[in-house]
Amino acid sequence: GAVVSQHPSRVICKSGTSVKIECRSLDFQATTMFWYRQFPKKSLMLMATSNEGSKATYEQGVEKDKFLINHASLTLSTLTVTSAHPEDSSFYICSARTLGAGGVRETQYFGPGTRLLVL
Amino acid sequence: GIQVEQSPPDLILQEGANSTLRCNFSDSVNNLQWFHQNPWGQLINLFYIPSGTKQNGRLSATTVATERYSLLYISSSQTTDSGVYFCAVRMNSGGYQKVTFGIGTKLQVIP
């Protein structure tokens, strides 16, 4: 099946630094990528949707200057948490989706997630 | 605001048993998805189902949009079905489209 990788899988950083998380679709081209956030023992939140070559669409309440998303190619999207603070500590998950024939939405494939701890 | 409620919050099943998970939502939806997150955190999209019924192997889902609920059926459960099942809806909210997740149903299938 389709594979989506994330790097790094875990990262610990100091408050005030920036952290970049990469999401790659390894064996397919992703026209759309999604970034989610999951708090400990809590539900998921969609942060933003990005289409290759265009600006990400952020969900209401998500700071676009805080969480920079770049979808530079059909196989790579990056999420940069700028000036990270302890409250940014979370599990960040990306997913990638293709469009099938006739523009029919294909299924989403998820990365394994990145655990971020900001000290 | 938008409300998405899932029930039950926790469920323990004997392997081979069937179960029904429910997702209630507070307004009309543009889309509804069911996800499974395994105990190691890996997510899988199960269904896009804003309305109607879909089946995929032992899983099926039905959304009755007019009554604002969706059901996920798991038949002949297996230990690999363990994990958390989330539903998520996309709705119009104050001029925006917003995706809201339920808090999930944690399923444990025991041998």
Give an account of the 3D structure.
The complex is a heterodimer of chains A (119) and B (111). Chain A is mostly beta strands and 119 residues long. Chain A is built from no helices and eleven strands. Chain A has strands at residues 4-7, 10-13, 19-25, 32-38, 44-51, 57-58, 67-73, 76-81, 90-99, 105-110, 114-118. In chain A, a hairpin with a 5-residue loop joins strand 4 and strand 5. Chain B has 111 residues and is mainly beta. Chain B contains no helices and eleven strands. In chain B, the strands form two sheets. In chain B, strands 2, 4, 5, 9, 10 and 11 form a six-stranded mixed sheet that branches. A five-stranded antiparallel sheet of chain B has the order 1-3-8-7-6, with no helix packed on it. In chain B, strand 4 (31-37) and strand 5 (43-48) form a beta hairpin. Chain B is globular. Classes of the chains: A mainly beta (119), B mainly beta (111). At the A-B interface, strand 5, strand 9 and strand 10 of A face strand 5, strand 9 and strand 10 of B.
Helices and strands in order:
The complex is a heterodimer of chains A (119) and B (111).
Chain A: E1 4-7, E2 10-13, E3 19-25, E4 32-38, E5 44-51, E6 57-58, E7 67-73, E8 76-81, E9 90-99, E10 105-110, E11 114-118
Parallel strand pairs in A: 2-11
Antiparallel strand pairs in A: 1-3, 3-8, 4-5, 4-9, 5-6, 7-8, 9-10, 9-11
Chain B: E1 4-7, E2 10-14, E3 19-25, E4 31-37, E5 43-48, E6 52-56, E7 59-64, E8 69-74, E9 83-93, E10 96-101, E11 105-110
